[in-house]
Amino acid sequence: MKKLIILIISIFAFSFSFAQIINVESLRRISDTSKWSGAANLDIGLIKNTQSIFKITNKIRLQYNTDKNLYLFINDLKLEQIEDNSFVNKGIQHLRYNRKLAERLKFEIFAQSQYDAVSDIKFRGLLGAGPRYKLSKSKDYRFYLGTLFMFEHEESSDETIPILRDFRGSAYVSCSLYPLTNISIVSTTYYQPLLKQFSDYRISNETSLGIKILENLLFKISFTYNYDANPVIGIPNTQYELTNGIVYSFN
User: Fold this and answer.
1) Per residue in 202-246, pLDDT tens?
2) Helices (H), 150-244
3) Residue ranges of the alpha helices (H) in 117-227?
4) What is the pLDDT of residues 64-112, one digit of tens each?
5) How far apart are CA 95 and CA 209, in angstroms?
6) In sequence order, which residues have a C-beta less than 8 Å from that of residue 242 and are 6 or more positions away?
7) Which of 132, 180, 182, 190 could share a disulfide with 212, CB 3.0–4.6 Å?
8) What gap in Å lies between CA 104 and CA 108, rounded to an integer?
9) How many other CB atoms sit within 10 Å of the CB of residue 66?
10) Can you give the CATH number for the domain in which 221 is found?
11) pTM for the complete prediction?
């Protein structure tokens, strides 16, 4: 019975490594009327091989949309325990505002705080702004292009590493596809170079498949790939994550 429970939990939540760039596109909700909307999901994983690994992932999205303005808040938390060691944790809090300037053009402002024990990031703060352009009007497929200018403040858990304060660019291309009424595919690629040294850059892609189970219940599979040309010393350049779980949304 115990093995069966572990197998069921593992099927509904599995992951490898951690993402460093939050994919805001996958958490936006398309809405053409003034209203609140949101979503919450909880993934629990229990893996037993040469070690016992326990994982909890929780994401909360809250959005308010009007004809001209969009407000978006995201809280993403992950906890992981290996054997009897203490929890290794990661968290991202993201606040974003969009102002509609024209039929296809919006202006974005965002602020983000982040910590990630796996990537040895004690604190990373971002503040940025820039235009967002809609490349298509179709309701069945949407393409977006965004270019942002942002300030980054980063502190490592290793106190011997100096605090970094730099300016970065952030360009992204995103597509949202709705081939059937109960299926959605969202893919976003980010490119974030250091403005004073373009050889220091980050690339991230997240692609997710959502299948509607009930009116407000979604089964979601996501794959995230991250590459950092200049990570904290001892942290690999490449990280990736594969997850699935259940998402509850409301509007």
Assistant:
1) 999 999 999 999 888 888 888 989 999 988 777 789 988 887 878
2) none
3) none
4) 998 899 999 999 888 877 766 666 688 899 999 999 999 899 999 999 9
5) 24
6) 14, 15, 16, 222, 223, 224
7) 182
8) 13
9) 12
10) 2.40.160.40
11) 0.73
d(CA 70, CA 108): 9
Work out how many domains the chain is built from and give that number: 1
Tokens (6 digits) for 73: 């808040």
Query: Measured on CA atoms in the order 216, 222, 228, 232, is the torsion positive or negative?
Result: positive
Specify whether the CB–CB gap between 100 and 67 falls below 8 A. Answer: yes
Structure tokens at 164: 């970094």
Biggest CA–CA distance in the chain, Å, is 59
184 Cβ partners below 8 Å, 6+ apart? 176, 177, 178, 209, 210
Q: What percent of the chain has pLDDT over 90?
A: 45
Distance CA 106, CA 99 (A): 5
Distance CA(238)–CA(226), nearest Å, equals: 6
| CB of 119 closer than 8 Å to CB of 239 | yes
* Structure tokens that stand for 230 in this block: 């200049």
Residue range of the domain that includes 35: 2-250
Find the length of the chain: 251
Residue 44, burial from CB neighbour count under 10 angstroms (0-12, 13-18, 19+): middle
